[in-house]
Write a structure and sequence with these properties.
- Residues 23-475 form the Aldehyde dehydrogenase domain.
- It comes from Bradyrhizobium centrolobii.
- The chain is of the alpha/beta class and 480 residues long.
- Helices cover 38% and strands 21% of the residues.
- It folds into two domains: 10-253 and 455-476, Aldehyde Dehydrogenase, Chain A, domain 1 (3-Layer(aba) Sandwich); 257-444, Aldehyde Dehydrogenase, Chain A, domain 2 (3-Layer(aba) Sandwich).
- α4 (99-119) runs parallel beside α5 and α9 (267-278) crosses α10 (299-311).
């Protein structure tokens, strides 16, 4: 069953602003390449209004009891689950993700609101024993202030939900600029927050020129923190702006996840699960396993089985129940895949699966595997962010670790081994914010998530994520 894509708006201080009289851009359906709707762009005055509303909304929201804030967030989670099908269909229309994956994304996004609703009631301070009898020393937690949030297109429900729910649970107000390519999902969640009782002004949702909006928001005196998910290059630019105002930063940046596969595992089973993990969301996941380093004794067998599973993946429209992998999000990703494959072929690297576009409309690309890649090819050094994996053999433990750590990224890393001692050694040696052993699930609402090296600063999710939106204030009082 299809449904009508909604008219798109800006949401500023509870006021919905349509396309009339504004610059707009089309939002495309990646399965067809056709326009779904026109998206209005915010003006400078719109952003000024949103900042003023956030400043006022922060003073209101920070004074709301934690239990009441939790009620609003829990009610939002309930509404998201009640309208799971609506949100899932928006995700599939805007991103192309298969509908089953979209439903799972909605559930995880709702779980983030639920988790932060409860954890927000537990932002305890502490009493510090004093050195004198007449002194009381306490450390208390306070919200840092209005937050500017920026989220990409690849997880249109999860990433905005993680940022919004964490900030609101901590007592902050939020202005979020989601991706212009997947706007309706974030707008729907924003509407549910208002329906759940969030006061006007505590949340605004804006779209437009990313450079102009990010600069104006970060330079605004009222904004006290930024949270950004996206590329390392853009993250560095935003960090340079934020540091001018000494503003708190949480940056979840690019990755290029290595996978070390030792020779003591069931290679057939690992190859199957690896292909499923790699091509989830067409590989457009920041933690997507991409660089497969496989012990030399089982490397060729792994390549054979992985390629077999990749070639068997059903590609198509996300609303087709038989579809396993949908389209890429936009034409840029298709062109990027062609560049990776072209570079590999020019170096004599074997394309063991895929390596070409498919279909005569939309942005579809076959699941691709580059076998026996070298360290100089594009795929070994630049995150593909698409349905492309590469393999290379290794001989020793130290060689595997060196391969995994050779890039300046450290967001997610994986290893497969039955040896408990070896697994512990891998976890300690890999330079990454998230190390996953013998499975593929990286992030949950209750777990911390963030990168090391050039993959980010700060943490989202779990207790640590909530603390990213809070200041610690030390108060020492003497009795008189």
């Amino acid at each position: 069953m299809r449904f009508e894509y909604p008219a798109l708006e800006l949401l500023i201080a509870g006021r919905r602003i349509g396309v009339e009289g504004r610059k707009t851009e089309p939002v495309l359906n990646p399965s067809t390449g056709e326009a779904l709707a026109q998206l209005p762009h915010a003006t400078r005055s719109d952003i000024e209004e949103a900042v003023a509303a956030a400043a006022k909304g922060f003073q209101l929201w920070r004074g709301v009891a934690a239990n009441e804030r939790a009620r609003v967030l829990r009610r939002t989670a309930d509404l998201m689950r009640e309208r799971r099908e609506l949100l899932a269909r928006l995700i599939t229309l805007e991103l192309g993700k298969p509908i089953g994956e979209a439903r799972l994304e909605v559930e995880q996004a709702a779980g983030m609101f639920e988790w932060n609703a409860e954890e927000g009631k537990r932002t305890y301070g502490r009493v510090i024993p004093a050195r004198a009898e007449n002194i009381q020393q306490i450390a208390i937690k306070e919200p840092i202030g209005p937050i500017a949030a920026f989220s990409p297109w690849n997880a249109p429900a999860i990433t905005p939900s993680r940022k919004i729910s964490g900030a609101l649970a901590a007592g902050c107000s939020v202005i979020i600029k989601p991706s212009e390519e997947t706007p309706a999902t974030a707008l729907a969640i924003g509407g549910m927050l208002l329906e759940a009782g969030l006061p006007d002004g505590v949340l605004s949702i804006v779209f437009g020129d990313p450079i102009a909006i990010s600069r104006q928001l970060i330079e605004a005196q009222a904004i006290r923190g930024i949270t950004f998910t996206g590329s390392t290059n853009v993250g560095k630019q935003l960090a340079a702006l934020a540091v001018q105002g000494m503003k708190r930063m949480t940056l979840e940046l690019g990755g290029h996840a290595p996978v070390i596969i030792f020779d003591d595992v069931d290679i057939d089973a690992v190859a199957k699960s690896a292909a499923m993990a790699k091509y989830r969301n067409a590989g457009q996941v920041c933690t997507s396993p991409t660089r497969f380093y496989v012990h030399e004794s089982v490397h060729d067998h792994f390549v054979e089985k992985f390629a077999e599973h990749a070639n068997g993946i059903k590609i198509g429209d996300g609303f087709d129940s038989a579809t396993v992998m949908g389209p890429l999000a936009n034409a840029r990703r298709v062109e990027s895949m062609d560049a990776f494959v072209g570079d590999a072929r020019s170096r004599g690297i074997r394309v063991a699966a895929g390596g070409e576009r498919t279909g005569n409309r939309g942005f579809f690309y076959r699941p691709t595997l580059l076998a026996n890649s070298d360290n100089d090819c594009m795929a070994a050094n630049i995150e593909p962010f698409g349905p492309l994996a590469m393999t290379a053999p290794f001989g020793s433990f130290d060689e595997a670790i060196a391969l995994a750590n050779r890039l300046p990224f450290g967001l997610a890393a994986y290893a497969m081994t039955k040896d408990i001692t070896r697994a512990k050694a891998v976890a300690g040696a890999i330079e990454s914010g998230n190390v996953i052993l013998n499975h593929w699930q990286v992030s949950l609402p209750e777990t911390p998530f963030g990168g090391h090296k050039e993959s980010g600063v700060g943490l989202e999710g779990g207790v640590e994520g909530l603390l990213s939106f809070q200041n610690t204030k030390f108060v020492s009082q003497a009795s008189v």
